[in-house]
Design a protein that fits this description.
This protein is an alpha+beta fold. The protein has 4 helices and 3 strands, in the order H-E-E-H-H-E-H. It has one domain: K homology (KH) domain (GMP Synthetase, Chain A, domain 3). Strands 1-2-3 form a 3-stranded mixed sheet.
């Protein structure tokens, strides 16, 4: 069960990460990245961000690129939220495949 503070910080991180990926996605034509959810640990030290990627076949490659530039993303996030947070959490990125799962279920039902 997440506390109110965890929820507020998760929403803040989701908004700021979305803005960061929006700016970075301009350099990658044909790829759409959105942050679908952010979960933060109870001690506020680790944030797990779930990314939805379109087209989904480029998801693995994109996650590798994002994990490779993790330090620059965390630095950019730190400059954006430095007045709200004292410690910037460690970021971990995962692919959110819930849309693919929904498409698969729809195909099976038809």
């Amino acid at each position: 069960m997440e506390t109110t503070r965890q929820n507020k910080i998760a929403r803040l991180l989701q908004k700021e990460l979305s803005d960061i990926f929006l700016l970075q996605a301009k350099s990658m034509p044909g790829v759409l990245v959105s942050v679908s959810a952010v979960r933060i640990s109870p001690d506020l030290s680790v944030a797990r961000a779930y990314l939805s990627v379109f087209p989904s076949d480029k998801g693995e490659e994109l996650i590798k690129n994002i994990n490779g530039s993790m330090k620059s993303i965390r630095y950019e996030l730190g400059t954006r939220v430095r007045h709200q947070l004292r410690i910037i959490p460690e970021l971990k990125f995962f692919i959110d495949d819930s849309l693919d799962y929904l498409e698969k279920i729809d195909a099976l039902l038809k």
